[in-house]
Amino acid sequence: MGLLVFLIVGAIAGWLAGVVVKGGGFGLLGDIVVGIVGGLIAGWL
User: Fold this and answer.
1) What is the pTM of this model?
2) Residue 9 is part of which domain span?
3) What is the DSSP string of 4-18?
């Protein structure tokens, strides 16, 4: 259950980062993937 929460929060954070920072990022899918990876790393730490 905790892993699923990290994935969802990471995806939302990646999407929000893409919305806030216009002209940068990796595109919608890339931002979501980076957010998920960041969420997983944060959960692991």
Assistant:
1) 0.73
2) 2-44
3) HHHHHHHHHHHHHHH
